[in-house]
């Protein structure tokens, strides 16, 4: 008995498998094709996101940083569509400020024009230099440099939060 030449079915299966692999690498195409997308899962642009920033904040300048944040970024953020709140954290060991800024959707966060962010950043830096001069005793701002340089930035996907039950709170 001679072996049969491969039919069309194995080639078709291989082609479909290759197509699925290609689409899996391109989420937008996979979503458009309805492949591997849960109907309950929001599109990435509509999912909530947490902006993550790390700044150099020396211990002696911590109060100036907080004051400049309150004067500039805080009121500006409160006017932004999709802004849900933020957390300001300080790592005393590393002398770093950590900001976690919560957005209703990635689309709303990324819709903010870069030029607008740059304006607020310049105001923040000026406010920080003023606050540092008040606390330094020498009366001179630290030039035109950013007193609290950005060390890293990124985005985080919220995965869940555990709250302490009300009954477990001590009086």
Describe what you observe in this structure.
The structure is a single chain. Residues 1-6, 9-39 and 137-141 have low confidence and may be disordered. With 171 residues, the protein is α+β, with helices and mostly antiparallel strands. The chain is 40% helix and 19% strand. The longest helix has 23 residues, at 114-136. It is built from 6 helices and 4 strands, in the order ααβααββααβ. Strand 2 (83-91) and strand 3 form a beta hairpin. Strands 2-3-1-4 form a 4-stranded antiparallel beta sheet. Helix 3 (62-71) packs across helix 6. The protein has a domain at 47-156: Alpha-Beta Plaits (2-Layer Sandwich).
Keywords:
about 170 residues; alpha+beta; Alpha-Beta Plaits; 4-stranded antiparallel sheet; about 40% helix
Write the layout of secondary structure elements.
Blueprint: H1 8-24, H2 27-33, E1 49-56, H3 62-71, H4 73-78, E2 83-91, E3 96-103, H5 106-110, H6 114-136, E4 150-156
Question: What's a concise summary of this model?
Answer:
By secondary structure, the chain is α+β, with helices and mostly antiparallel strands. The protein has helices at residues 8-24, 27-33, 62-71, 73-78, 106-110, 114-136; strands at 49-56, 83-91, 96-103, 150-156. It is globular.
Provide the CATH architecture of the domain at 47-156: 2-Layer Sandwich
Helix/strand class: alpha+beta
Describe the sheet with the most strands.
Answer: 4 strands, antiparallel
> Could you please say which CATH topology of the domain at 47-156 applies here?
Alpha-Beta Plaits
Approximate shape: globular
Tell me the quaternary state: single chain
What does the radius of gyration come to?
Answer: 25 Å
Low-confidence stretches: 1-6, 9-39, 137-141
Helix and strand succession? HHEHHEEHHE
Round the mean pLDDT to the nearest integer and report it: 79
Q: Estimate the strand proportion.
A: 15-25%
Helix content: 25-40%
Number of alpha- plus pi-helical segments: 6
Determine and state the CATH class of the domain at 47-156: Alpha Beta
Beta strands, count: 4
Biggest sheet, spatial arrangement of strands: 2-3-1-4
The N- and C-terminal alpha carbons lie at a distance of: 86 Å
């Amino acid at each position: 008995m001679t072996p049969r030449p491969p039919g069309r079915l194995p080639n078709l299966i291989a082609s479909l498998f290759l197509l699925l692999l290609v689409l899996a690498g391109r989420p937008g195409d996979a979503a458009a094709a309805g492949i591997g997308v849960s109907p309950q899962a929001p599109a990435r642009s509509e999912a909530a996101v947490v902006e993550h920033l790390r700044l150099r904040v020396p211990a002696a300048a911590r109060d100036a940083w907080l004051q400049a944040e309150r004067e500039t970024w805080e009121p500006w953020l409160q006017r932004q569509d999709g802004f849900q709140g933020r957390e300001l954290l300080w790592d005393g060991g590393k002398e770093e400020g950590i900001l976690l800024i919560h957005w209703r959707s990635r689309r709303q966060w990324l819709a903010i024009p870069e030029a607008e962010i740059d304006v607020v950043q310049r105001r923040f830096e000026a406010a920080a230099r003023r606050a540092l001069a008040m606390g330094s005793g020498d009366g001179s701002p630290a030039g035109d440099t950013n007193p609290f340089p950005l060390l890293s930035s990124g985005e985080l996907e919220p995965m869940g939060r555990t709250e302490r039950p009300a009954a477990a709170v001590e009086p």
